[in-house]
Specification:
Distance between the termini: 26 Å
Radius of gyration: 18 Å
Number of strands: 11
Helix content: 25-40%
Number of helices: 8
């Protein structure tokens, strides 16, 4: 098995898990644990990143703590974190030591890590191809690798008029958080591939995968169908959307090719961990998706 990823949770019957069957439990107990000296280290790491990549910006994110699937319903335990904290913990050279200390102090290797929840889309076109994007050199993670459309659900989308820098858990409703989780993956497809929302199906949650290249950061992976053919998708991509700068090329792979990816060593290693996670979950579930 690939050491880059591990499956945290697989949904046995993905098509049956509608948003109404997913619940968020929001609590400060699910935030990152404080650790003396860590905040200064995070600030230094962010300042260094910004010196080399001044276009990066901070923002509130949902912190993934854990998930539980019971009787066909999914519970997500979430706190709050930020992109700055993510780069300063999960991507820090100190991440292995932080994981060891978290395990020793709290019985939780992720306790001192930011752990922002990501989303990814295994996107299928009307003619049965799957969409992959070549990541640009301007992104903070996995430049040059093949990825699936994705990003993060945003607390600011569920917090009403509260300024992003002031968002606290009490500003959020669990219902709106789940709505944003499912909506965000469609928004990422729209912004990265330049596809209209009305061309996309309801997202089907396949499961949650951990990216071991970023110290176990979790991502919810979805399956989405598009009404447009691969050629129509290509034309729209080349026009460019709001996040066109994040990728340099679009690649289409047949279903047969996607199902064979993990067995093709050279092609598999072209994928970044988020894409590997989405492909693996799709391969496990494809017979139940129609």
């Amino acid at each position: 098995m690939d050491p880059d990823i591990s499956v945290e949770l697989q949904i046995p019957s993905p098509a049956e898990l509608t948003p109404e069957r997913v619940r968020a439990e929001l609590s400060p107990a699910y935030n990152r644990r404080p650790l003396p000296g860590l905040e200064a280290s995070i600030a230094e790491a962010w300042a260094e990143r910004r010196r080399h990549q001044p276009w990066l910006f901070d923002g509130a994110k949902f912190r993934f703590h854990s998930a539980e699937l019971r009787a066909g319903r999914l519970l997500l335990r979430l706190g709050l974190t930020s992109y700055r904290d993510y780069l300063g913990t999960n991507w820090s050279p100190q991440a292995p030591a932080l994981r060891r200390q978290g395990l020793a102090d709290w019985g939780d290797s992720q306790a001192y890590l930011a752990e922002p929840l990501g989303v990814g889309a295994v996107l299928r076109t009307a003619d049965g191809c799957f969409v992959f994007l070549r990541r640009s050199d301007r992104v903070a993670e996995a430049p040059g690798k093949l990825d699936i459309p994705g990003g993060h659900p945003e607390p600011k989308a569920a917090a009403g008029d509260v300024p992003e820098e002031s968002i606290q858990l009490e500003h959020l409703s669990a219902e709106l958080v789940i709505r944003e989780l499912f909506a965000s993956v469609l928004g990422e497809i729209r912004d990265e591939v330049n596809l209209p929302l009305d061309s996309l199906s309801r997202p089907v949650l396949l499961g949650i995968v951990r990216n071991n290249r970023s110290a176990g950061r979790a991502s919810a992976e979805f399956y989405v169908r598009c009404k447009l053919t691969s050629e129509e998708v290509r034309r729209r991509y080349l026009i460019g959307g709001p996040e066109a700068h994040e990728s340099t090329d679009i690649i289409f792979i047949s279903q047969q090719g996607v199902l064979a990816l993990e067995g093709d060593v050279s092609r598999w290693q072209e994928l970044c961990p988020s894409a590997k996670g989405g492909v693996r979950l799709y391969a496990l579930a494809h017979t139940k998706l129609g």
